[in-house]
Amino acid sequence: MKKPRATAATSGPDGLATAGDVAAIVAGTHGDPFAVLGVHEVGKSLFARCFVPHAEFVTAYTLTGIIAGELSRRDDRGFFEGKLSIRKRQPLRYHARNAGGDWWLTDPYSFGPVLGPMDDYYIAQGSHLRLFDKLGAHVIEHEGATGVHFAVWAPNARRVSVVGDFNEWDGRRHTMRDRRDTGIWELFVPDIGAGRPYKYEIIGPDGVRLPLKADPFAFKSELRPATASVVAVPPAHEWGDEAHRNFWRNADHRREAISVYEVHAGSWQLRDDGTFLSWDELADRLIPYVVETGFTHIEFMPISEHPYDPSWGYQTTGLYAPSARFGDPDGFARFVDGAHRAGVGVILDWVPAHFPVDAHGLANFDGTALYEHADPRKGFHPDWNTAIYNFGRREVVSFLVNNALFWAEKYHVDGLRVDAVASMLYLDYSRKQGEWIPNEKGGRENLEAVSFLQKMNKEVYGHHPGVMTIAEESTSWPKVSAPVHEGGLGFGFKWNMGFMHDTLEYFSKEPIFRKHHHNDLTFGLTYAFSENFVLPLSHDEVVHGKGTLLGKMAGDDWQKFATLRAYYAFMWGYPGKKLLFMGQEFAQRREWSEARALDWNLLEFRPHRGVWQTVRDLNYLYRSRPALHGRDCEPEGFSWLIVDDSQNSVFAWLRSAPGGSPVAVISNFTPVPRDNYRVPLPKAGNWREIINTDASEYGGSGKGNGGLVEARAEGGSIFATMLLPPLSTIMLELVAD
Fold first, then answer.
1. Which element (helix H / strand E) includes 132?
2. What is the pLDDT of residue 12?
3. Which residues are in coiled coils (predicted)?
């Protein structure tokens, strides 16, 4: 990189800085410290000026150790300057001394900028797709020295300084260079490296010093309650997951088995002393468990840095930093790689909808509404008391899009589940009349948020084709999972909130009343293929007084367990990808709390173990039978066999896909066994029972059909006469001739 020419500073004929400049540097109010500090040409000579608090004497040296001149103290608070004996501008080191000792430091103001004009151009355009390589804190070699390059966006600030233990948190010592065209402030600080805590001290446009700010691009943070950012090096992990990534790059996710285990990393399990497991400990325990239980993916609730445990990570202050709760960022890289090597994908909950207003975070970042809308009718979220990103600002969109790309590139994540999409799409979300501002067309749609989501999805799928995006979107917004070029939002999948709501409503009813609510289970098929759906039984259903899935089932304890097993098999046979929150796979009895681990001792009891075995076997069937996953998102893969037997609360349908035998799914949601029940089937012959949730090994009554039923042609139709066990779902697979 071509070095800039030495700056011509304001100085007197003797080359000394003006009294006003000296006073401003010492007070930390100078608007352009690079015009004063560092190395400057005065006539044909070079002068050096530095601010070194506590020093009484300062001698300048080149980086190679050649003495360059003695500097005189102009101000007792630490301002030094003097003529140099060197003829060529170059970085300097200073030997500082006082009565208590001596120390060395390298002058950050004697170095040129790190960012270049092309960075300025793409940053200003909002089209820079590698901001995480430019902003934040990066350990680099620069002009012969090793140090850390800091860069932060604060276009309306009067001054920005980087502060940390390396400068006694003194904002006068490392004031940054203002790249005025972009609003980026940068500074190369030599002689420091990884592991150093830091923040930004920002003077707002009104001259008021703001609370110290964490770095929006911090790649590592201190463990809460501390809130400083930490200088980090990029993950040094040597990845061994190319086979896994290649498979998903070349796969059509809609036609693959995707069964997701949703996990809160801070409460899945804990150490004996109640502290969090590290990523390595989680890898040792969680990955084998997921493999054994048969899930294809782990979906973590947000693991980016957040100050408040009960927010579960949804109030994030560090979008680029894996939380310090679980160790170093490298540990998360090792976890993802270990999961991939075991054939398990990793999905992250991602929160671009809002951010908390903690003083060290993004709110009022440079003394103005920078990341958020200034008008609370657009910039404040009434449900969560949080700020809403300004999706109309290209720098904010770039910050968020880059973050999605960052997790895909740096940590090889397999997907992003985007939280609270509905709150982004509607300007009147949770607002009364008069509390929101219509869009330019007079409507309630947030057109800027739509544009952002489309851009994010285009960039993620364009640069990382093996990565999927999943929308938590609770309304009937059209084409959420349709491509952008077809007018869609561009997500790969959408959570089917209707399925969750309708089915839980149905199973909460006593069996005798279910015949009056038959439509709760059939209605979903009228829209089941309007989007690429994930069926979510998520954390939202087992918190805030909602109990657990087991507790939601009607009836006595035996009926609750039987109904839950039958419900899971109904869901695994239903079109759509699957998601189950941790603990529900073994019928956790206590409502989930982030403050304690799951009740793993329940697996010692037969009913709970039976639910776990049911889920394990369902995952195996789902993955091994193309009929159950190959056409999850296409109507050709589904046909009703029995849709209108409300009196008996029986449902039956056929799943089919190329490359596999068809599978019939039959559910009886009353505690009454149905003898000699006729089920129409598409082909005569033997149909093998591949699962029966009433099997005694699962904790059921053991009723069934001996593992096989025969379908016969009679009177122009084909059907099998069988026993439907109580509160059960069975699956039948056509036996090949």
1. none
2. 60
3. none
Contact 165, 191 (CB under 8 A): no
Expressed in angstroms, the distance from the first to the final Cα of the chain is 72
> If you average pLDDT over residues 269-290, what whole number do you get?
97
**Model-level pTM greater than 0.70?**
yes
Instruction: Map tokens 């004697």 to a residue.
Output: 110
CA 660, CA 736: separation in Å to the nearest integer? 10
Helix/strand/coil for 724: strand
Residue with tokens 């035998």: 661
* Lookup: tokens for 413: 């994540």
pLDDT, tens digit, 9 for 90 and up, residues 585-610 = 999 999 999 999 999 999 999 999 99
pLDDT tens sequence across 548-583: 999 999 999 999 999 999 999 999 999 999 999 999
The catalytic position among 21, 337, 472, 531 is 472
The CA distance from 261 to 270, in Å, is: 18
Report whether the peptide linkage leading into residue 662 is cis, meaning its omega lies within 30 degrees of zero: no
Is 120 considered catalytic here?
A: no
The per-residue pLDDT for 35 is 94
Distances (CA, A) of 297 to 98, 195, 286, 294, 348: 60, 32, 11, 9, 10
737 is catalytic: no
| pLDDT for 1 | 34
Structure tokens at 694: 């009433």
Instruction: State the DSSP H helix or E strand holding residue 686, giving kind and residue range, or none if neither.
Output: strand 685-692
Task: Tell me the two tokens of residue 120.
Answer: 């300025």
Q: Measure the CA dihedral 607/611/616/620, to 10°.
A: 120
* Dist. CA 524–CA 537, nearest whole Å: 15
| Strand residues in 577-671 grouped as ranges (E) | 577-581, 638-645, 650-655, 663-668
Q: C-alpha distances in angstroms, 541 versus 39, 603, 611?
A: 63, 21, 18
**Residue among 443, 446, 349 at smallest CA distance from 390:** 446
Rounded mean pLDDT, 416-422: 97
Q: Coil, strand, or helix at residue 483?
A: coil
Q: Residue 11: which pLDDT band, with cuts at 50, 70 and 90? A: low
Task: With a cut of 50, say whether residue 9 has pLDDT above it.
Answer: no
Question: What mean pLDDT is predicted for residues 450-458?
Answer: 98
- Structure letter (DSSP) for residue 213: B
Helix pair 557-573, 497-507: axis angle to 10 deg: 150
Q: Check: CB of residue 305 under 8 Å from CB of residue 323.
A: yes
